[in-house]
Amino acid sequence: MEKIYLYNTLSRRKEEFKSIKNKFVGLYTCGPTVYNFAHLGNLRTYLFEDLLKRTLVYNGYQVKHVMNITDVGHLTGDMNMGEDKIESGAKREGKTAWEIADFYTQAFKQDLNKLNIGFPDIWCLASQHIKEQIALIKNLEKKNYTYITKDGVYFNTALISNYNKLSHLPLKQLKEGARVEKNPEKKNPTDFALWKFSKPVGKRQMEWDSPWGVGFPGWHLECSAMSLKYLSDNLDIHCGGIDHINIHHTNEIAQSEAATEKKFFNYWLHGAFLNISGGKKMAKSGNNFLTLKSALEDKGIDPLAYRLAACQVHYRKMMEYSFKSLQQAQNSLRNLKLAVAALGEESGTINLNFQTKFRQVVNNDLNIPQALALISQVLKARMEDKDKRATILDFDRILGLDLDKAEKKREVIKPWGEEIRTLGLEIDKEMKALLSAREKARADKDWTRADKIRAEIVSRGFILEDVPEGQKLVVKNDEK
Ligand code: AMP
Ligand code: ZN
């Protein structure tokens, strides 16, 4: 088997990947909190995890992939305070917490499908693993890691000698970070809730009995309980976005290792953020919340153009969002698909030389940008077209760009009396002016002028149709 190197946040080094069992990998990826749609930033992290999983499979590993769905316990304060995000989503939309969780779980799955992100082998819901979470707290309680306050059962982080082993931050700094939360009953600022009690007023929708009182599990607990349940002997790789390093994953490690007295996951991989306008993280709160639908589909951009855009930036580098870069990615995807289509339908033999190069770059901590560059080298190489096709489609097993499928149609609509909508097809100012002028000529019943403008538009390589909604424009060779 070829060697794979992965950057491990635990050691802050690229390490040769060695699975616990031969040719088998246990992979746990922290899943969504289902109180809203996933935004493009969240999806970037799931894309990176998909590229990792495909790389492992490409190298002959069988991967057991587990992903949680956080449908209870994630508080708006991200630590131990604030409202449960699912319950507040339910209030916002006038639905039950279960309806909210179910609706956004389905929406999340649809997004994954659109981005060719493979589903995990096991989806696990926090609300369906209360028994396991209570058992974990009991275990920690027996070992004296817990204490009880008015609002819940807490984990005492001061008892963990290497609490900062993932974050690599001085303890003082971790404590400073945790101090934003003012809870006088906590013994240490970094202590976190394992179980929160329901408040005496304002009944929660999701709550359960426990040996300590009615309430619900803390957010970090679910990932420990479920990964230990489903991957007990295969704690190979655990992933998430970089925001999880200092709190969520640090706490998962602390409580799991305290409970099992064994190492909890050998490799920790973290994806960098998608930022928006001047280095601000895309987040679910605030007005920089862009979904697959609002940022791409409503604008006629193929979701796979976002997959390509994410492939162009290494997963550990910050990615900057701009609509322009999505349009460029859409054009690049289109050109790639056209280039593959031009190679014909017949599939030949994979070029082993290129395959080796490809494997080397992807196995080097998922250098997908370099892997993409290899496609143009294959296209330029002295090889039979059918072999080029076979080689590129072999790369696509990891890239997941559907390079052998025709691209979705792109068009421009000028609805009668409204702004032009460019649905994945960019046109210049002059073309926009021509469409508006033709609409005006039609409104004035100046048919000669309207026809003249139509001829001008068509002469530029477009097909122009009058549909009930308005004028529809497509590029001539896009028409099929
Ligand atoms: P959440 O649904 O908020 O729990 O987040 C789901 C995943 O998205 C986690 O792995 C986060 O680390 C990740 N994430 C959140 N915001 C961003 C962002 N702007 N860019 C990349 N990943 C993000
Ligand atoms: Zn998690």
Question: Would you kindly provide a written description of the structure presented here, covering whatever features stand out?
Answer:
- The chain has 3 domains: 16-271, Rossmann fold (3-Layer(aba) Sandwich), CATH 3.40.50; 276-399, Isoleucyl-tRNA Synthetase, Domain 1; 409-480, no CATH class.
- The chain is 41% helix and 17% strand.
- It has helices at 40-58, 85-93, 97-114, 130-142, 171-178, 219-230, 245-260, 292-295, 303-311, 323-341, 352-363, 368-380, 385-399, 429-443, 447-459; strands at 5-8, 13-16, 24-29, 62-69, 122-125, 146-148, 152-155, 192-197, 215-217, 237-241, 267-271, 274-276, 280-281, 319-321, 411-415, 421-423, 462-467, 470-475.
- The chain has a 5-stranded parallel beta sheet, sandwiched between helices.
- Helix 4 crosses helix 6, helix 6 crosses helix 7 and helix 11 (352-363) runs antiparallel to helix 12 (368-380).
- The mean pLDDT is 92.
- The protein binds adenosine monophosphate and zinc ion.
- Residues 30, 223, 248 line the site of zinc ion.
- Zinc ion binds next to loops.
